[in-house]
Amino acid sequence: MSQLSTHVLDTALGKPAGGVVIQLEQQVAESWEVIARGVTDIDGRLKDFTGEPLAAGRYRLTAEIGLYFAATQRETLYPTAQIDFVIAQSGGHYHLPFLITPWSWSTYRGS
Hints:
Blueprint: E1 3-10, E2 15-16, E3 21-28, E4 31-39, E5 45-46, E6 57-63, H1 65-71, E7 81-87, E8 93-95, E9 98-101, E10 104-107
Parallel strand pairs: 1-8, 1-9
Antiparallel strand pairs: 1-2, 1-5, 3-4, 3-6, 6-7, 9-10
């Protein structure tokens, strides 16, 4: 079983993005099932997203960055940022950060 964490960084301001709503879904057959929801802390982190280990499978993290930018009174092109990923084998830690600005976003696998 694997663990998952995330971190949202507002690279336009050079600071963590606290208060971002994030949803985790798992693909089940041909549909997606919500398995966890959370909100980033003041450091922009969700340290142990599910509280329980994740089995091998396909998942997606969706960050509601449009709401975050609206709260900071900035317009954005992207209302959400979504990471679609696969845990090939059970075990290990997956840290998947979001680097966001009002006009772009990106990700990588951290440690």
